Structure formats: C-alpha cells, structure tokens
Automatic annotation (TrEMBL):
Taxonomy, superkingdom: Bacteria
InterPro entries: Alkaline_phosphatase_core_sf (IPR017850), Phosphodiest/P_Trfase (IPR002591)
Source species: Promicromonospora kroppenstedtii
Name by which UniProt lists this protein: Alkaline phosphatase family protein
Length: 401
C-alpha cells in the first residue's frame, strides 16, 4: 500500500498512531491492557505516541463534527477546550481522521482501532454487495447483520471481556442500534437523552462502587452529537454553532470537575466541517456529463462512491467526471484509491462495497443526486467527508481530574 499522492492542500487519511484509530487502543494502554488491532496498532505503542498517563478510570469523549481547525477558529466559544488545546504538544493534539471523513467511517475506526477497509463502514451510504441496493449506514437500513458487515473486534468489547467496566451513556434509540453494534459494541448502555444527562451518567458510572469480581477499572465512552447537527443545519460559522459549542464546552468543564480524582478524560472528534459553496454544486441526476454509466451514487456530497452500470468502463466515468469537475474534485478508480491507502488495508469482503470510482471534492464543492437527496439535504450549509484540513484534522485533548 503506497502513500497517497494528493494535490497540495489536501490531507492524506491515516490509520497509524497519529490517527483517530489510535485513541481507544491508547486508552486501553493507559488502563494497563495489552492488545493489538488487525492493522497492527498496539495499546502500548498508541499510549506512548499520544503521551497518556496511567489511569484506572478513563472517559473518551467524541464530539461529532468538531475539527481542530473549527475549534481553533471559534475557540472564543470554548474557553475550557481552548485551554486544553494550549496545554497539548501540537504533535499529539492533532489527529488525522479517515476517508471519508464522516461519522460512519470515523466511529468505526475509533471503535476498532483499524481502518474503513477492515470495518466495511465506508460512508453515509454505500452499496450492499448482497442486494445491490444503496444502504444507509448511520440508520443501518438495508445492511443486514452488523456483525457480518463489521467483523473486527472492538476495543470496548475487548476491554469488557478483560474485566474493565465499560459504559456508554446515550439516547435510548442508540441502544442496540445497528451502528452501535457494528462500530462500538461492548459497553453497558445507560439511557440518557440530553448531553447534560449523559455527563451526569458518566460521573455516576465512574463513582459506582467497585464490583468485587471486576478489576476496578472503568472506561466510559461519551458521545456528543449537537455540534455536528447544528453545523449541518446552520453552518459552522453560524451563531447557532457557536452556542452549541459553548454549551458542550461548559458541560465538559463540569465533567472534568465532577469525575473522581485521577480520572483521565480524552476529548476527540470523528471529523470537522466546512461550509458548502452553492455556486459549486453539481447534480448527477441532471448533468449530462455525470449521469451516464452511473447506476448508484453512494457516500456523501463531499466524498462519493460511484457504482457503475454493467458494461461501463470505470475509466470512462473517471475521465468524464474529471473533465466536468476539474480542480473541484479528485476522481480515481477504485483500484487506485485502494492501492493508495485511502481506506487503509482492505479486506476481501469489503472490496465490493467500495465504489468502482471514488470522488473526493476539493474547496467547498459538492456533488449531489436529486434522485436520492432531498432539497433540504442539497441545501445543507455544513458538510464534510473529503480531504481538506478542516474536515480531516481532529483534536485529541486530555485532562486529568
């Protein structure tokens, strides 16, 4: 697998000790556990690379959509997180996300310590090789058994099997969902609808009396989706996004002040966001250069999987899309994307789910398909998925109570 050769200004995906994939193995190392993921990450190696101390209690916070550049540029709304950012060495405060830089892929590499090419979770939508239909990954629609799609053991279930009490507070709808069972299986789910309630549940889980049959170690996985949701709806440059970040920052400050002494708190994200440029949007359904030969459009408007019609040479699609989109997109055949490591090591059962052609948008451009994307989705101001620094670079912030 070669190193991706990308145009200047784009960030190559990474699945090593400087990536999002290293966070949970590093947390396991901080707890004193030894494990090795299918892509060769070790708990000890990740812990050393990220500079984590020993701990008996760890909280891993995932703030969906909070890229490190988004945080740095709007840090006035997050004085607590901004302070943590200043305390970290730059080399360990910034991690690289996956391709695509989106929740399904990001959470799966976080959960398993591997890569999308191993987890089979490749975007917001992707083709189900068994049915040939376009499946929705986040909603887990038309994908089948989560354990069959995502076959890697998760770090959380490995820790739970070793005696660590692993808890994940979250909305009731997440309990047993396909997405959770695929990417993050293993924790005890605690129902908590608001982020404030989830912080309370985290503190309670860490303060719970030690089970005599267990190790006494605790790990809590804490998810916050409000920042990403607000960014999609209003843009990350909006006052609404600032308010969502401010509320998150306040709760994380309260979390660190409330957990038992010695608890290690890690704050990271699955991806960042950019603001889409409506003047640079193309519609596959109506564009005569983009439509021919394309049976299904998967992924998302910033990172697309193109599944070609039978008898269509993907090279023809690559040539037409490259000519039509010009500098606004990087269009490559599947074999090149795989060889260049966009998805990390690719397992044989995952390969058919990758598009015959893979597209990464540059700048603030998007490609939509009005046959499947609603008018609201096509007008969404906040987007992500591609290889720009705002989308690909995420924080790793640490605090010890």
């Amino acid at each position: 697998m070669s190193t991706p050769e990308l145009p200047e200004g784009l960030v190559a995906p990474s699945y090593d000790t400087a990536s999002l994939a290293a966070v949970l193995p590093a947390a396991a190392g901080a707890l004193g556990h030894d494990l090795t993921t299918a892509t060769g990450l070790t708990a000890a190696g990740c812990r050393a690379a990220l500079g984590l101390p020993d701990a008996d209690r760890v909280v891993v916070v995932l703030v969906d959509g909070l890229g490190i550049r988004n945080l740095a540029e709007r840090g006035g709304h997050a004085p607590f997180l901004r302070g943590l950012l200043r305390e970290r060495d730059e080399a360990t405060a910034t991690l690289t996300s996956s391709f695509p830089s989106t929740t399904a892929a990001g959470l799966s590499i976080l959960g398993t310590g591997t890569a999308p090419g191993r987890t089979g979770m490749l975007g917001y939508t992707q083709r189900n090789p068994e049915t040939g239909k376009l499946a929705a990954v986040v909603q887990w629609r038309d994908l089948g058994d989560p354990a069959d799609v995502q076959r890697e053991p998760t770090v959380l279930e490995t820790l739970a099997a070793a005696g660590t009490r692993v808890v994940a507070p979250g909305p009731r709808k997440f309990a047993g969902s396909g997405m959770s069972q695929a990417a993050l299986r293993g924790p005890v789910h605690v129902a908590a609808e608001t982020f404030e309630q989830r912080v309370d549940a985290t503190v309670a889980a860490l303060r719970r009396p030690v089970d005599p049959a267990g190790t006494g170690q605790r790990l809590v996985y804490l998810y916050q989706g409000d920042v990403d949701k607000t960014g999609h709806g209003f843009g990350w440059d909006s006052w609404q996004w600032g308010d969502a970040l401010e509320a998150t920052d306040q709760e994380l400050r309260r979390l660190v002040r409330s957990v038992p002494r010695g608890t290690l708190v890690l704050v990271t994200a699955d991806h960042g966001q950019i603001k889409a440029d409506p003047a640079h949007q193309w519609d596959v359904a109506t564009d005569p250069a983009l439509h021919p030969g394309v049976a299904l459009v998967g992924g998302e408007p910033r990172a697309l999987h193109l599944y070609t019609e039978p008898g269509t040479d993907p090279a023809d699609v690559v040539a037409r899309w490259t000519e039509r989109l010009g500098e606004h997109a990087l269009v490559v055949p599947r074999d090149q994307a795989v060889a260049d490591g966009w998805f990390g090591p690719v397992a044989p059962h995952v390969l058919p789910a990758i598009g015959d052609v893979v597209v990464a948008m540059t700048g603030a451009a998007t490609v939509v398909d009005s046959r499947v994307h609603s008018a609201n989705a096509r007008a969404m101001p906040g987007v992500h998925g591609s290889l720009t620094p705002h989308e690909m670079l995420v924080p790793l912030l640490t605090a010890t109570s």
